[in-house]
Write a structure and sequence with these properties.
With 143 residues, this protein is of the alpha/beta class. It has one domain: 3-Layer(aba) Sandwich (Rossmann fold), CATH 3.40.50.1010. The protein has a five-stranded parallel β-sheet, sandwiched between helices. Helix 1 packs parallel to helix 3.
Length: 143
């Protein structure tokens, strides 16, 4: 199963190391899940995660966040965007997530924004799950 993480999942992993988002990142670090991201999506991860409010809330230094993002970049499957599918959802940043998922042939988009974004991905056969639900599905597939 291949995932694409919305930016809010990466932020949650940094801010809450014991949450479902962080558990999914640990599964990625252990090579247990595949996660794809486009360059544009990863740039959004960097721009958002390095905001002072997130760094402060995580209790980290900016260098720690940058190290985390560098490591994350090395673990994710790079995805070239061959087809743009805009506009599909209300938020242009969410179109970036959808485009990465469609072009990566992902099975699941993991996001805290499932209510607003579920219809468009489903047209492409992609599920949208909350981090806790994605983690539950992942763990069930490991048994």
């Amino acid at each position: 199963m291949k995932y694409v993480f919305d930016t809010d999942v990466i932020v949650a992993a940094i801010r809450s190391p014991n949450g479902a988002s962080a558990a999914l990142i640990r599964a990625l670090q252990l090579g247990q899940v595949k996660v794809a991201a486009s360059v544009a999506l990863f740039v959004e991860y960097e721009a958002t995660c390095t905001r002072a409010e997130h760094v402060l809330a995580a209790g980290l230094q900016i260098n720690d966040v940058n190290d985390f993002l560098d490591g994350l970049a090395g673990l994710m499957e790079p995805t070239d965007i061959h087809y743009l599918w805009r506009p599909q959802v209300r938020d242009p940043a969410d179109d970036m997530v959808l485009e990465a998922a469609v072009n990566a042939m992902a099975d699941v988009i993991v996001s805290f924004n499932v209510k607003d974004d579920a219809d468009a991905p489903q047209r492409f056969g992609i599920d949208v799950l909350l981090p806790r639900d994605a983690l539950t599905r992942f763990r069930a597939s490991q048994q």
